[in-house]
Amino acid sequence: MGRRKRKGSAVGRILAWIVLLAVLAAAVAAWYDFERFARTPLAIGPQRQTFDVERGSSLRGIVAQLRARGLTHAPSLYWRVLAERMRVADRLHAGEYALDPGLTPGRLLDLMAEGRVLQHDFTIVDGWTFQQLRDALSKIVTLRHEGAALDDAEVMRRIGVAGEMPEGRFLPETYAYVKGDSDLDILKRSHEAMARTLADLWPKRARDLPLASPYEALILASIVEKETGRAEERSKIAGVFVRRLEKHMLLQTDPSVIYGMGQAYAGNIRRSDLTTDTPYNTYLHAGLPPTPIALPGRPAIQAALHPAPGRALYFVARGDGRHVFASSLAEHNRNVACYQLKRCHD
Length: 346
Fold this sequence. Notes:
By secondary structure, the protein is mainly α. The protein folds into three domains: 43-117, Dna Ligase, domain 1; 119-200, no CATH class; 207-339, no CATH class. The chain has helices at residues 2-39, 59-68, 76-86, 105-114, 130-138, 152-158, 183-201, 214-227, 231-246, 254-261, 271-274, 298-305, 329-339, and strands at residues 49-53, 95-99, 119-123, 174-178, 314-317, 323-326. The strands form three sheets. Strands 1-2 form a two-stranded antiparallel ribbon. Strands 3-4 form a two-stranded antiparallel sheet. A two-stranded antiparallel ribbon has the order 5-6. α3 (76-86) crosses α4 (105-114), α8 (214-227) crosses α12 and α9 packs across α12. The longest helix is centred in the first third of the chain and has 38 residues, at 2-39. It starts with a helix and ends in a 7-residue tail after the last helix.
C-alpha cells in the first residue's frame, strides 16, 4: 500500500514539473515574442505616413487605430506592457505624427509621450497681397479655417488689431504650424513678426527721409517690393522714389495703379488706366498711396529705410528683370524708346 502511494506521488510530481515547464516555456516564448514586437518596425511601407491621435484617445483606442490601418498586428496587451515598461502609458499626447519607414512601436510611444507632433511649413511670399495670402491659407487642408468666412475687418479684429488696414501688415517668411492650428494663428504670428520688424528697423533708418512714420515706410517698401525682385536694385529704386517725394513729384508707379484697379486688372495696364481716378493712381495723386499695395519682405523694408544716394529720378525695365536708371526726363524717354519700344539708336 505504501509503495503505491509513493509511486502515485512521484507521478504527480513529474506531471507538476511537466506543467510548470510547459508554463515556463510558454512564458519564455511569449516574452521573446513581445521583445520581437518591441523592436520590429511597424508595417509602414516605403513611404512616410501620418497618424492622427485625437484628443482624449486612450492607449487602447490608439492601438485599435493602428490595427485598423494594418500598421500593427500585435495584441493590445503587448502595447500596454511596452507602454508601462516605458512609463508612458498615461502621457501620450494628441496630434499628428509622422510615421517613417523603420519606426518601431517603442519609438512611436516615445514620440507621443514627448508630443513631437508633425510640423508643417507655410511660406508667405514677398510681394503677395493680403488677398493672395488669404487665398493661399484657404488651400491648406491641415489648418482649421476659422477666418475663411470672415471679412478683412473681422479678421483683423480676431487677431487683436481691430480697425487696422490689413494690406502690408504681415511679414513674408516661413511659419511652422501643426495640424489643428488655424489660419488666424498664422495671421496673428505673421502680423506680430511684421510689427517686431518695423520696431527694429525704423529707429535705424537713414536721416532726413520724407517718411513720417513706420507705416509710411511700409507703404514705400511695398512699392519697392512690387517694382523689383532683384536684391541689388531695391535700394536704388527706393532712392528714386525718395527723391521724387522730396521734390514733390508724382511717383508714377504702375504697381500702385494696378492695385487700385482691383479685379478690373486683366494683365495689361492701358493708357486709359493711368487716367482713371482711384486713391492708388500715383499718376494723378501726389505722395504715397493710402496703404501698402503688397506684403513687403524685410529686404524691401531695409531698402526703403536706407535708399541708395544718387540723382536718378526715373527707371525703366530692360526686359530681363533689371532696370535702367535716368536722372533726366530726356534720358528716360530715350531709355523707354530703346527698351520698351525697341527703337535703340547708337
